Structure formats: structure tokens, C-alpha cells
Amino acid sequence: MKTLEDRPSKFWPEALSLRSMRGRIALLLGLAMLPAGAIAMQVGFNAAAATQAAYEESLSRRALESIATERRTIDELREMLRVLATTPALGQIESGNCRNWLSDISDRYPYIASISVSTDDGLIRCSSPAVANNFRVPDSEIRRRARARDAFTMGYTEHGTISGLPVLGALEPMRDGGRRTGFVGASIPTTELNALLERSRNANNALRNARAAIVDSHGRVIAESNPAGEAPPLPAPELITTRFGGEPVFLEVPGGDAVIVPLYAPDLYAVMSWAPDQPMWQRVGGIAFSIAAPLLIWLLAIGAGWFAIEVFVARPLSSLEAAARGFARGEDVGDPPALLSAPAEIRSLRRTLAAMAKTLRGRELRLVEALAEERALLREVHHRVKNNLQMVASLLNIQARAAKDESEAWGLARAHDRVQLLAVAHQRIYASGELRHVRVDDIAAEVARQLLQSRGAPAKEINLVMELGSARSGVDRAVPLAFLIGESISAALDALTDAGPVELRLMLQQDESGATRFAVDSSIDAERARTVGSGARLIDAFARQLGATIGRDPARPYMLWALVPPEQGAAD
What is the mean pLDDT of the chain? Predict the structure, then answer.
């Protein structure tokens, strides 16, 4: 049974044949370019956004209307305290002398529960209602904030010190010559704030079904109105405190919406919640209707574009990709059914891939054979070089043992060590089977062991301790690096032989950049060491060849450290 992708298309004009990539791209562009749908969708979103903005604006306007009375009351209280705080006579009164004066002020502002003048440390100088002489108000959060802010401050107190009622307290600093001498304070009972909220709600029909509250900086409700009907709850205090700011903030609450409006930021805020003017389904339906039609048009354009790309481009390309994977595995892949109706360009590309895969398979086979031959040849070369070097080392060893002159024997023994060191490097290269890199730590360990063993009985009291981290190097640098390490160890052994029990440490490490660090050190005192021979010149020569930095301690000739930079292009 033929699928849709296998059926040749007969409905398209011959000039725009669907077997041509150009014809199919033209069809795709014709279906995808639907600017009218995009414009209509944008208009729908704009209409929904305008509806939401109008709704939020109405909520903000209602909230500002609801707190107009409360804001006037707060401004009136603050202005009264400011005038009192700047009155010169108030700062010169003695305790109790201002009682009648403050009583007159209380009569002018009947919503005030108490008014007082206190020093900076809380000593009441005079108040209305009156308190005992030398009465001192306990330290409170509002007083601490007022001292820290040194400005007008408001806060909720569950038990007023003077009135004994739950109050909203306010403090205004008094100054003498720019220095704060105390505070003028006043308090409004929360019952008065409740009454203000009720009067605001009753004066505005739009607010009758709203729930209004005044909260402090901790989100605690100080005063709250009683809505005429059912109203949504206020937001949770922890949610309110996270949304404080200088502008109205809108929130969603169960069954409605809420708005937070600064009454006197950052100390006092008003919170109101409303039930929606329209049922939720009606609001959602209105928004959905405004964008449903353009959204359907947009989805139709997307669906048409997806269909065209899937049938005319994606499936043929997927079949071509499957054929390319078969070619990569070395398989002979025939034409899949999807490519029978593919554009001519894709079918031509498939034929090109097949020809290329065949050519690459032949070249790959020849490269594999050549690489195997080269690897075998290199391994054989290193193996033979190693064998020849070991033969030379054996001859040098025999000649050194037969030498009668001590200096001649010593020179032949050192020549034997160097030839043996070179043989070790080639043996490790041969054993690793690598053509590019070799393990330097393995070479260093083997070189150290063989050098110590070649010293025989005089070096039996030398304890070799190796701290070798993983390190690799190119084959071309492995030999000079092995000689650098070997000559350093050999020089240390020359200095420490016959020095008694001693510990010789070899440390080697390679960092992420490819730089190799190694050091040769011992715990022996400098007085017990012998003079280092001529190996230092070889060490310096190999260091220059590698571009390494050598460090020595003149007082300890057997100690040496070196830093070998990474190979050029090693990071690549």
C-alpha cells in the first residue's frame, strides 16, 4: 500500500512541479505567508491587553478613592506633629506644664487617643492624658525605627503606653540647633481607623462590596472594614510584604482581585479586595473571543507550513539521512520509497552521497592498510633500536668491569647508564604501541629503578621514593625528556652514594596545560653529599632542547627541579 509520501503529485501545475525543490518551497512560502492572520492576532492581543489595563485602572482608581479620607487624616496628623515639633516653646517646657495645651489639641482632633512629648530616651515630659511624673515609655519597634530614620515614623502598637488601646502611633523628631532632643508623638485608636474605612465605603457605592484594610510594614491588619456582602479575602501577610512599593500592585486572591496601595510608605499601606464585576467565565470568554479567531488563522498557517515541510522536505531528508548512515556503516543502500517522490535535487544528492561513500570506503581501506604497515614498521624500528642499545650497554658494562683505572671504569659505567636510559625510552615507546604519545611517568619510574640498580652495592642504602602523577609527551620529546630526568637522578646518585642511609625522592606531575614539573631531592645534609660530576652540562643541554627551566640550590648540589613547557600545538 502506497503512503502519501510515495504518491506522485498530479494536482500541481507542471511549471511548479512538486518534484522540484523550488516548487515545493514556493508552496511552503505561499501557505506560511499569512500576514493578515498575524495582524489579526496582534489586534486581538492588543484588545485583551487594553481590557485588562482598563480593569486594573478602575481597581487602582477605586483603591485611591477608598483611602482618600485616611490619607487626609494621616497628612493632617503629620502636619500637626510637624508644627508642634518646630514650636520653640515646646522644647522649653517643664514636665506637666503643657498638659492644658495638649488637651486643647486633643479637643481639636477628636480621633487622637493620646499625644505626648518625650525625650530621646523615652522620658515623658508632658502628655494628654496625663501620666505620672518621671514616667518613661518602654523602648518599642516604632521608637527604634524613628531613631534610626530620624524622621516622621508610624507603626502599629497593640497596647498603647498612654491610652492602653490598640493604636496607630506616629512620632516626629524635635530638634534644638539641628540636634534631636526628643519626639512629639500621637496615636489614633484602631477603632477610629475602622470608622474611617466604614465612612469611605458608605460614601462610595462602588466600594460597598469591597473589603478594605490598613496594614503596617509587617503586613499586619490594623483596621478592616466590613463589606456589605460577600467579598474575597485579603492576601496573606507574607504575600503583602513581598509586594510593597511606591505604586499600586495588583494581586489575584481566591474569588476576586486585590490591590495594595501605599498609604504612607514604607510604614503604612492600604489593601482592598473585590469580587469581579463580571463572572470569571464571562471575563475569560471575552478575552478568548477577542483572540480566538486570529489564533485559529495563525494555527491554520502553522499547520499548513508544517504539512508542507513534513511531506515535501522533512520526510525525504530523513530518508536521505538514513541512507547516509547506511553509507557510513559501509552498507550498500538502495533507494527508499520516500526518495522516489523526493525533489530532483535531493535524489541527485543521494546519488552523490552513494558515489562519495564508495570512494571513501576504498580510500579508507587503503589508509587502514598503510597505517597498519606504518605502525608495524615503527614498532619494529623501536624494537630493534632498543635491542641494539641494550647490546651496546652490555658491551659497555663488560668493558667497565674489566677496566683497571677507576676513572675509566666510572666513565664507562656512566656511558652504560646513558645508553641503557635510551634503550628504556625506546622500549617504552615500543611497548606502548603509540605513534604520537608515550607515558613519561612510566619512563621516569623505569629509568630511576635501573639507575639505582646499576649503582650496585654502594647505593644499597639509598631509599628511592617516587611520587609520579600521570604525564604524557610526544614521541619526539620523550627521549630528551627521559635524558633530562635520568641525568638529574644520576647526578643525585653520584652525590649521595656512600653517604649512609638516605632517602631520594623523585616527584613528577603534569598540569592541565601540558606543562611537566619534576624534582629530585633528598633528606641528607649538604655536608654528607659528594661533589656532583659533569652531568650538569648535559642537564642544561637537554633543558635548552626542551625549552625547560632548571632550578638548583648551590648549597645542595644533589637537589634539582625543572619545569618543561607544553608542546607546541598540544592544546589542539
Answer: 75
Read off the DSSP letter of residue 253: E
- Pairwise CA distance, residues 404 & 519, whole Å: 35
The secondary structure of 386-411, three-state, reads: HHHHHHHHHHHHHHHHHCCCHHHHHH
Contact 195/73 with Cβ under 8 angstroms? no
Which three-class secondary structure state does DSSP give residue 436?
coil
- 220-268 pLDDT, tens digit per residue, is 888 888 776 677 888 888 888 888 877 888 888 887 888 888 888 888 8
Residues in the chain: 572
326, amino acid identity: G
Query: In this predicted structure, what is the pLDDT of residue 112?
Result: 87
- Phi then psi dihedrals of residue 499, to 5 deg: -95, 5
Q: Domain ranges for the chain, please list them.
A: 70-192, 436-572
Among 3.30.565.10, 1.10.1670.10, 2.60.40.2470, 3.30.470.20, what is the CATH number of 436-572? 3.30.565.10
pTM over 0.85: no
Separation CA 541–CA 488 (nearest Å): 12
Does the domain at 70-192 match CATH 3.40.50.1240? Answer given as no
What single letter denotes the amino acid at residue 166?
Answer: P
Output 300-307 pairs: Cβ under 8 A, ≥24 positions apart: 300/34, 300/37, 301/31, 301/32, 301/34, 301/37, 304/31, 304/32, 305/28, 305/31, 305/32, 307/31
* The three three-digit cell numbers of residue 388, written as one number: 641494539
